Amino acid sequence: MATPSAIGIVVSDMKKALAFYRLLGLEIPEPAEGEDHVGITLPGGMQLMWDTEELIKSFDPDWTRPIGTRVGLGFECTSPAEVNALHAQAIAAGYESHKDPWDAFWDQRYAQLRDPDGTVVDLFAATP
To answer: Within its chain, how far is the Cα of 115 from the centroid?
Structure first.
């Protein structure tokens, strides 16, 4: 079974976004200039991550800025095979795929589904 493991937020300006979340009390290290991905581990092990719009467009060129929320949910699977199987199971149950499973350049097997409201939910596992 997949385990909820990460929450990702797409941002248009990394510095402004991190300043806001620091204001709320999160301890976020200062990223390198131009860094397009920043993440922290929350108490209890949940990861909170921020990605620039440019990074998202690098692997999903059709991505457009959403109206409303910019939060996504990520579910960690036990293996790349489980990513594939869970994605196929969801499709067979009538749910929509946003992006079929692929081997991402950041060393994970990755897939994206849409929940009933259209929110993209990520499935992922480390690649060996």
So the answer is: 14
Listed by start position, the domains of the chain span 3-126
What residue type is assigned to position 48 of the chain?
L
Nearest-angstrom CA–CA distance, 65 and 34 = 20
Task: Round to whole Å and give the CA distance between 55 and 31.
Answer: 15
Q: Which CATH class is domain 3-126?
A: alpha beta
| 29 DSSP assignment | P
CA-CA distance, 123 to 87, in Å (whole number)?
8
| Total count of residues recorded for the chain | 128
pLDDT digits (tens, 9 = 90+) for 40-68: 999 899 999 999 999 999 999 999 988 76
d(C-alpha 28, C-alpha 18), whole Å: 7
